[in-house]
Amino acid sequence: MGQSQQTGSCEEIDVKALQDMYKKFVLECPSGVLFLHEFKRFFGVHPTGEASDYAENMFRAFDKNGDNTIDFLEFVAALNLVFRGDLEHKLRWSFKVYDKDGNGYVDRNELRSIIDSIYQIKKYSKKDKSESHLTVDEVVERILDAVDFDRDGHITLEEFVKGAQQDPWVLNMLRLDMNPAGWVLENRRKSAHF
């Protein structure tokens, strides 16, 4: 075996980088798994701060097998998606963040909860200066109008992906979710300054 491994998307994963990530992961998580409180600490998120709910939903989306921990393979798979995945794969991952109870659809309350978390993060990071100032409820209604094609009050995975791909405003509203790595890096930098 050489220094790189082919993936399904024909991109190479650098074995040395993977080894370095594993060393850092084990240093932070000697047990070999990351629990929610460690995940928040690892990414510099205060347990009850503005980004706490969002971090919990990211954690749940990373936890592929549902055992309330993230092992190294789950961690690498999520990072690979974030850095190398195409738009549809990233939207599918984002859907998991929004579908808090894992029932296969996003209802109004789940959508509102995540949009509220995103608003809190944007307010905290002061990145929301140029956008129109819609309320959380106005954003929720506008997203539901744009993507709930059968008007049943629930957004399926297919509606979520198709709606975001067809409506630039909806995709823009999901932008924070589309780049969790950027959000994580930004929060790590902020926590290093405290």
TrEMBL record:
This is Guanylyl cyclase-activating protein 2. Pfam families: EF-hand_1, EF-hand_7. The lineage of its organism: Eukaryota, Metazoa, Chordata, Craniata, Vertebrata. SMART domains: EFh. PROSITE patterns: EF_HAND_1, EF_HAND_2. The keyword 4Fe-4S does not apply. SUPFAM superfamilies: EF-hand (SSF47473). Keywords: Calcium, Lipoprotein, Metal-binding, Myristate, Repeat, Sensory transduction, Vision. The keyword Calcium applies. Coiled coil: none annotated.
